[in-house]
Amino acid sequence: MSSRLSRTLYVGNLPIDIRESEVEDLFRKYGHIVEIQLKNPPRPPGYCFVEFESSRDAEDAVRGRDGYEFDGQRLRVEVAHGGRGQSFPVGRGSRRGGGENKFGASHRSEYRVIVRGLPSSASWQDLKDHMRKAGDVCFAQIYRDGDGVMGLVDYTNSEDMKYAIRKLDDTEFKNPFSRSYIRVCSFKMADVNYRMKS
User: Where in the numbering of this chain does the RRM domain appear (predicted)?
Assistant: First the structure.
């Protein structure tokens, strides 16, 4: 049985208003989570501790989430006893997605869809919650322009992206404030359509 310290992660640079469910969404793909302890200091940034069932899962999470961009900030993720800089073996899913950069595994991927028709009250959290019905979302962002509100969503793999286009196109998107029917298509296809119109 691995020691509790070796399977507990410190996660820093979090928004003050983050919810436990959002932390769980960030880390559950790496393994079974035993406990999440949110710490909300009076001034940002917030931080938390995430305890996994196994130290191997914790190491995979460090590799996958240290340097990951969340709410405009790069997360700081390390083993709670200060075990940064260790050489971790390649973990699950590390080859999928956008490859490596100087911050570690990229949070973006090539498996991207564009979502149109979002209500003006939509947040990136709302978008992520809706789109993860189709699979593992690794990035979500909202854009507001003259044509209204649109979103970009990256999945960790091609199958989830294709399933999102099939399952979530022309579905009802709703949050506590409003609802609308959205259109979902691949980012590349949207780019082609845009060039044809211009």
Answer: 7-82, 111-184
Q: 34 with 24: CB under 8 angstroms?
A: no
* Lowest model confidence (mean pLDDT) among 59-68, 78-87, 170-179: 78-87
Q: What are phi and psi of 197, to 5 degrees?
A: -75, -30
Q: Assess contact for 18 and 38: CB atoms under 8 A.
A: yes
Among 5-14, 169-178, 185-194, where is mean pLDDT lowest?
A: 185-194
Half-sphere exposure of 185 (CA within 13 A, CB side): 10
Alpha-carbon gap, residue 62 to 41, rounded angstroms: 23
Please count the CA atoms within 13 angstroms of the CA of 65 that sit on its side-chain side. Answer: 27
Q: Give pTM, 2 decimals.
A: 0.46
CB atoms within 10 A of CB 79: 19
Residue-wise pLDDT for 112-147, tens only, equals 999 999 998 888 888 988 998 888 888 888 887 666
Give how far Cα 97 sits from Cα of 23, 29, 100, 184, Å: 20, 14, 9, 20
For residue 22, CA distances in Å to 18, 19, 70, 128, 175 come to 7, 5, 10, 10, 16
